[in-house]
Amino acid sequence: MDRLILTDVCPRDGLQNQSTTVSTPDKLKLIDLLVRAGVQSVEAASFVSPKAVPQMADAAEVVAGLKREHAGLRTSVLVPNLKGLERAQAAGAREIAVVLSATETMNLKNINMTLQQATEVSEQTLKSAQAHGMKTRAYVAVAFDCPFEGTTPLERVVQLSRRMLQAGADEVVIADTIGSASPGMVRDRTRALCQDIPVDRLAMHFHDTRGMAVANAWAAVEEGMRRFDVSAGGIGGCPFAPGAAGNAATEDLVLMAERSGLATGIDLMALLDAVDLAEQLLQRPLGGRSAAWLRRQREKSLQAA
Ligand code: HMG
Ligand code: MG
Q1: Architecture of domain 5-304
Q2: Which residue lies with its CA nearest to atom 19 of ligand 1?
Q3: Where are the domains of the chain?
C-alpha cells in the first residue's frame, strides 16, 4: 500500500511556544506514547538559545533520554547554527534540521541573521553535519507567505530549496509558517519545486491557522508528496512569527490518509493517549479537527467491550 511518512514535531514545534514549560520526563513520556501509537520519526527538541526559547533548554537531556529508550526511532533536532550543531552532536543526536526562512525579515526576527547570512550558515551547518555522518533536513520557512513581507516569491523558494539540497540536505522541508497556504497555492508551488527536486527529497510542514492544513496536505499528496510534518493534538507555532497557530494535527492527517487508502503505521486510538497527555501537561483542551469525533469512537468501542 502507498504510505505517508510522517514526522511528529509536537515535542519541538508543539512545545516551543507554550506558556507552560513541560518537564524533561514529561516530554519523554509524550514521545513514548507517540512511539507506542506507531510514530516512527519525531523532531524531539531544538538546540537554540535558551534565552530565545526557554522551553527547549533541556534539549540535551531529551536526546539522551531518547537514545536510552528508543534506539530505533528516527529522531531529529532543530539547530539554527554551528553552535547548535555542536551541542546536538555532544548530546548524541543523529539527525539535525536547519531553519532558513525565505525572506529577509523573518530570518532577522527568528535567528538574528540576514537572508544571506542564514543561507550561508545553513549551508555550513548542513555540510558539517554530513561530514560527521548525520542525517539532515533543511526547513525553508515562510515558503508561502511571510508575516512581515507578504507573499514570498516562488522563484526564491525554489532557489533556496535547491541550495539546501546542494549543500547536502537529505530532505528539504517546505514550511507554511503562518498557515496561510491554500490548496491551489500548494499545487502550484509543489509542481514548481518538483521540476527541480526529486519528490522524495521534499517534505511539507503545514500550520493550520485557517483550517486549511488537511486540504493543503491532500493537494500535496495529489502532486506526489508523501513526507509530512505533523503534531499530535495540533499544537505548535513559531514564537517569532506573529499569527502562527498550531501545526497540522497528526490525527487529522492520519485519518485523511487512512480514509484515502494511504498507510501511516499509526494507530489513531493509541495516538489519542498522546493527545490526552499533552492536554494534561498544557492544561487546556487540544486536538485537531477530527479529535472530538475520534474520542466519540473510542468511547463507543469502550462501551461495546
Ligand atoms: P544571537 O543572539 O544573534 O546569537 O542569536 P549570537 O551568536 O550573538 O550569540 C548570543 C548568545 O547565544 C551567546 O551566548 C551564544 O553563545 C549563544 P552568551 O555569550 O550571550 O552567553 N548561542 C547559543 N546558545 C545555545 N544554542 C545555540 C546558540 N547560538 C548562539 N544554538 C540564535 C542567534 C540563532 C542563537 C537565536 O536567535 C535563537 O536561538 N533563535 C531561536 C529561533 C527559534 O528557535 N525559532 C523557532 C524555531 S523555527 C520554527 O518554529 C519554524 C519551523 O517550525 C518551520 C515553520 O513552521 O516555518 C521550523
Ligand atoms: Mg513550524
Answers
A1: Alpha-Beta Barrel (3.20)
A2: 49
A3: 5-304
